[in-house]
Amino acid sequence: MEYVILAVAIAVVAIGAITGFVVSGRRRKTLPPSPRTPVGAPPAEPQVGEEAETPRDTPTRTIEEVDLPPGVTAPEETVSPEAAVAAPPLEVPEPTAGRLVRLRARLSRSQTSLGKGLLSLLAREHLDEDTWEEIEDTLLTADVGVTPTQELVDRLRTRVKVLGTRTPDELRGLLREELVALIGTEADRSLHSARHSAAEAGRPSVVLVVGVNGVGKTTTTGKLARVLVADGRSVVLGAADTFRAAAADQLQTWGERVGARTVRGPEGGDPASVAFDAVKEGIAEGADTVLVDTAGRLHTKTGLMDELGKVKRVVEKHGPVDEVLLVLDATTGQNGLVQARVFAEVVDITGIVLTKLDGTAKGGIVIAVQRELGVPVKLIGLGEGADDLAPFEPGAFVDALIGD
């Protein structure tokens, strides 16, 4: 009996297994076929070794070349984190019109002793010879120069005698008129920085910046770029001071702030070659002005001064140089005149830039250096700020000297 029950159980298990296989087979047959990969679906992950697929010869197309279905737009271009770092925004320089007026307070603080000293002497009840000698000494101490001082004193003596009464306002007006006349208002103090006409091949204006070491020449060149950009000029900078790598780096930093490109060469390279390339680049870019910063020449070194002459001659292969600006440190006083004389013998100076004028009470250097060179002061530096370089205005300068 036990054998019969065991046989029945085995039979039942066998029948159940056969039935499962049949049902499973039928289900597999009724499953729908796997869908094909649609066009445009992302490819499978790449395989390596023996499982790697053979590269297709079919040329690939960019997203711009693929015709997308209606209503489907192309994805925006992705940017790497490194490329996503935005360039620093360009700075907007202060307008140059009236800049000297805005800086007048800074200038007047350093020039008070000259203006107030003259006014107090002229206001004395009796203007005897001793008083006039004090007036002369005050002017000479301010570096006005011997000849201009004598001219001013002679005119003041005549006008005071004719004036008779001397109220403070009358004295201030009289002194202002004579100082402005001594500085001069007829000279052309504008910077020739406009692009030349098509008749002159449309080349940019070329400005050479020269001066000895330590006067702030490279900084002045950078500030001058800001002055020109503020006046609507496009500028290319030439870092022809190849003896100091720091000078080229400094100039490039100034240029990047206002969007001006800097042309530079290898350290210790030929300055004339860099200057030539800068003008060439300015022509190619259609720039308005090319500013060339030269090395700080020591006026006692004949070889270096000769090299400066070479820079000018090489640049002139593109056309005449429009401006040669001599940068002088106002605090050096009469020593600046010695520098000016030597530079004027090597290149034709067209204008003077006086730096650090806010740091000295010797404002008379403006008058003296103009008389020495016969060229006008065109720009003055009144601080370390980026926009502290101002076009020189005789009236505003004298107002700062004597006070309003």
Enter the CATH topology name of the domain at 198-402.
Rossmann fold
How would you describe the shape? elongated
The tally of strands reads: 8
Q: What class do helices, strands and sheet pairing give?
A: alpha/beta
* Alpha carbon gap, first and last residue: 137 Å
Task: Give the SSE order as H and E letters.
Answer: HHHHHHEHEHEHEHEHEHEEH
CATH class of the domain at 198-402: Alpha Beta
In order across it, which strands form the biggest sheet?
Answer: 3-2-4-1-5-6-7-8
Return the average pLDDT rounded to an integer. Answer: 79
Main sheet: strands, sense, barrel: 8 strands, mixed
What amount of the residues lies in strands?
Answer: 5-15%
What is the level-2 CATH architecture name of the domain at 198-402?
3-Layer(aba) Sandwich
Oligomer classification: single chain
For this structure, what is the CATH homologous superfamily of the domain at 198-402?
Answer: P-loop containing nucleotide triphosphate hydrolases
- Count of individual helical segments: 13
Helix content: 40-55%
Q: Rg, please?
A: 40 Å
Low-confidence parts lasting 5 or more residues at pLDDT below 50?
A: 21-32, 37-52, 74-85
